[in-house]
Amino acid sequence: MKTIRLTWATLLLSAVSALSSLLMAQEAKDIIGIWMPSEGTSYIRIFKEKGKEKYHGKIVWLKEPNDESGNPKTDPDGKPILNMINLKNFVFEDKEWVDGTIYDPKSGNTYYCTIEMADGNKLEVRGSLDPFGLVGRTDTWVRMKTK
């Protein structure tokens, strides 16, 4: 009788483990959506480029879209921040999006970037000075619910 219970427990544990692996499996398209960086001052819409396996991000909302003069906020080069593409050329490889860049409209600098999905509703976005990600910082972005 103990052998039967042990066998059932082993089978149940194996089934739960297999199911959780399937649920946690990521696909390239999982990144598509609207995300809010930790500062909470903008939303980024991540999308797939038509006909290619590349992903990009566009700033679609700013908490304060205008400067003190009432004009649209711009980057150091004078380009409007709202609707700016600030994530470029990401490809999905080994459960993360790699080989992309992130543009910081405050400083005007572009950084190497990788993105990992922490869970279905959080991204770990790492911008770095070097292509290996050694010198940089990671920010957690949260998926925004859409209607």
UniProtKB/TrEMBL annotation:
The UniProt record lists the DUF2147 domain at: 33-143
By its UniProt entry, which Gene3D superfamilies does this protein fall under? Answer: 2.40.128.520
Q: Which Pfam families match?
A: DUF2147 (PF09917)
Q: Does the keyword Kinase apply?
A: no
User: Which key words are in the record?
Assistant: Signal
Q: Where are the transmembrane segments?
A: none
Q: Which residues form the signal peptide?
A: 1-25
Is Endoplasmic reticulum one of the keywords UniProt gives this record? no
In terms of InterPro entries, this protein maps to: DUF2147
State the name under which the record lists this protein: DUF2147 domain-containing protein
Give the originating organism. Answer: Croceitalea dokdonensis DOKDO 023
Lineage of origin? Bacteria, Pseudomonadati, Bacteroidota, Flavobacteriia, Flavobacteriales
